[in-house]
Amino acid sequence: MMMNADPQELAKFGDLAHKWWDPESEFRPLHEINPLRLDWIDQLSQIRGKRVVDVGCGGGILAESMARRGAEVLGIDLSERPLKVAQLHAMEAGIANIDYRSVAVEALAAEQPAHYEVVTCMEMLEHVPDPASVVQACTQLVQPGGWVFFSTINRNPKSYLFAILGAEYVLKMLPKGTHEYARFIQPAELSRWCRNAGLELVQFKGMEYNPLTRRYWLSGNTSVNYLLASRKPAA
Ligand code: SAH
What is the pLDDT of residues 88-105, one digit of tens each? Predict the structure, then answer.
């Protein structure tokens, strides 16, 4: 079977895996945005007690925080070292309601269709050869009435300036080569993939950053980083 994954992308995250839980490392932005996205996801979908799958979970920053809020979480990724780090971190923290698996989202969707009440897929679509296929699989994984959340980066001159030149070259928040401009995704493209998969769009949010105050906040401005909440219509 052809894997919808780019080995170079998986290796990039594998090489840095040991630093995943260091809040001052290359993963600092993920640590800093996590409370914002967690609250937003939780407010819309009330994750306590729900079955949640986190697609492209990496070292488990979001997955573990959702488990701490009482969700039954499965984290999946195709990069082995981040998964090991995630597993170890949850074990050391004594969190029982979380599991991690190395499996492609398309394969899990075939195995467990409509099994989850909430699907999260954050900062992952822009690293994948065929993001529409991931959207399709996330839709297959969620039960009717359930929620699917995405976040990614818009594609326009401003996002090139902020997300690549600014974040990788000027502020050095991210390693050079973290993101590839051509893989960025416009909201209209993500919307189309969601609608084609059968999801209803509920809410777009922009995620903005002020490098001087080092503050992040959610807004209506989706020109660089943004999130989408969507639902599978109830049966
Ligand atoms: N979602 C996490 C991690 C984002 S980093 C968070 O927001 O905190 C991007 C992650 O996507 C990495 O862990 C990388 O290994 C994973 N990834 C990249 N391509 C993938 C693919 N085809 N399938 C599953 N995971 C993938």
Answer: 999 999 999 999 999 999
**Ligand 1 atom 9: the closest Cα is on which residue?**
124
Does this model's pTM top 0.90? My answer is yes
Percent of the chain residues past pLDDT 90, beyond the cut:
95
CB 77 less than 6 A from any atom of ligand 1: yes
CATH architecture for the domain at 7-231: 3-Layer(aba) Sandwich (3.40)
Q: Distance of CA 26 to CAs 23, 55, 58, 176, Å?
A: 8, 20, 13, 11
So where are the chain's domains?
A: 7-231
Residue ID of nearest Cα to ligand 1 atom 21:
5
Cα 57 to ligand 1 centroid, rounded to whole Å: 6
SS (H, E, C) the chain: CCCCCCHHHHHHHHHCHHHCCCCCCCCHHHHHHHHHHHHHHHHHHCCCCCEEEEECCCCCHHHHHHHHCCCEEEEEECCHHHHHHHHHHHHHHCCCCEEEEECCHHHHHHHCCCCEEEEEEECCHHHCCCHHHHHHHHHHHEEEEEEEEEEEECCCHHHHHHHHHHHHHHCCCCCCCCCCHHHCCCHHHHHHHHHHHCCEEEEEEEEEEECCCCEEEEECCCCCEEEEEEECCCC
b/e per residue 133-153 (b: at least 16 CB within 10 A): bbbbbbbbbbbeebbbbbbbb
State the CB neighbour count (10 A cutoff) for residue 93: 13
